[in-house]
Amino acid sequence: MVPQWMIEKKRDGGALSADEIRAFVAGYTAGTIPDYQMAALAMAIFFRGMTPDETAALTDAMMRSGDTLSFAGWPRPTADKHSTGGIGDKISLVLGPLAASAGLAVPMISGRGLGLTGGTLDKLEAIPGFNTRLSPDAFRAALSRAGCAIIGQTDRLAPADRKLYALRDVTGTVPSIPLITASILSKKLAEGAVSLVLDVKCGRGAFMRTPEQARALADSLLRVGRALGRTMAALITDMEQPLGRTAGNALEVREAVEVLRGGGPADIRSLTLALTARMCLLAGVATDAAAAERDLAAHLDDGRALAAFRDMVAAQGGDIRVADDPGAVLPTAAVMESLSASADGWVAGVDAEIIGRVVLQLGAGRRRSDDVIDPAAGVDRLVQCGDRVRRGDTLMRLQAATPDLIAAVRDAARGAVRLADAPVTRPPLILETLL
Ligand code: URA
């Protein structure tokens, strides 16, 4: 295989064979193919695209560039969820334990927050003692004990993606559906779950801005996941508005615990139920979506999901008091300030992108991957689209380590909330289900 011949073939619109793709990825991972040739190929893929077979071969080669886990012979069916990321998205914290309480095994490998998008690992690490860096054996032991375990990506998981993603970031080749598909699925499929539900978000707080873009990505992910032997489904969901009433790590853990205790915001509860029900259907432990959602709702209301959360926290070394009294163990910010409505009205929209920026500036997120985050910072008591507000009511509460951080975002935060003078109905959260 001569790398430049492959680059030329793709540049001219040809389709690469699985063997060519495997050899290119192996050479790039080993360092025998330099960054400049991989960058040229990525740009050729950006302009020419890839067939579904090529995308599947790229995904498979990237997945096999490192360790892959297998849970063959495991007593429970394995299933997981992947979200393309959004603001206030704490669904995994509820969904993992909820699915475990329904008899699934959820081996979840998650990411850290970067830019506007929060990361499940950062949220979990707000729980004192919670260890997201388990060895493969400890991960299996935690999964066996709790039915759900959530850890971070190791150096050995899809190393080709780690290298390629950094290269794409600086060569203008991130927004390519085949490259995004291979990047997401090479990591997600390496964790070994047989069934995978995708939450592909679209809107101002998401990577994909329009439903059409989100559908194109979802279609590609579904096709490739299935070609590689997984059972798959996808929901296209709205990310014009943040999910729930909190954004920021410890604050989102608190809200997730509320949902696990049968309360919490309706949007978090309903989306978690819909995604978890799909996992149950794919894994064969349920046959009807509506009935599965009803059963799972009972698990939230009667403490079974909370018990699974407690087991997961214990298995990963965290302080289990978080399940019963989160306020006693989670960090709290030194400075809090409520923003209040200057007039009566109805909330017509909360701009997810602005809230994402506000939360980042308050210290809860990272601009660069090596930034240190403040687990206590963020926003809570956030109004939601459709809420009735009276003059003086709280629109949101800002939390940070210093008054300066709050002063810097106050105006932007206020501008995120649009009020109308007539009642507003919140648009649907689930835009489409792709089976
Ligand atoms: N998330 C990923 O993991 N990879 C991409 O290419 C884009 C989003």
Report on the structure:
The structure is a single chain. The protein has 17 helices and twelve strands. With 435 residues, it is of the alpha/beta class. The protein has a four-stranded mixed sheet with strand order 1-4-5-12, with helices on both faces. The two termini are 38 Å apart. The model has no long low-confidence stretch (mean pLDDT 95). The structure holds uracil. The site of uracil has 6 residues, from helix 9. The site of uracil (URA) has 6 residues, from helix 9.
Instruction: Record the strand order, biggest sheet.
Output: 1-4-5-12
Query: In sequence order, what are the helices and strands, one letter per element?
Result: HHHHEHEHHEHHEHEHHHHHEEHEEEHEE
Helix share, percent: 40-55%
List all distinct small molecules, including ions and cofactors, that are bound in this structure.
uracil
CA-CA gap between termini: 38 Å
Spatial shape: globular
Q: Count the beta strands.
A: 12
Main beta sheet, described?
4 strands, mixed
Q: How many structural units, i.e. domains?
A: 3
CATH architecture descriptor name of the largest domain: 3-Layer(aba) Sandwich
CATH class of the largest domain: Alpha Beta
Residue-averaged pLDDT: 95
The value of Rg in angstroms is 22 Å
- CATH-level-4 superfamily name of the largest domain: Nucleoside phosphorylase/phosphoribosyltransferase catalytic domain
Number of helices: 17
Runs in which pLDDT lies below 50 for 5 or more consecutive residues are none
Secondary structure category:
alpha/beta
Q: Write the CATH fold name of the largest domain.
A: Pyrimidine Nucleoside Phosphorylase, Chain A, domain 2
Residue fraction in strands: 5-15%
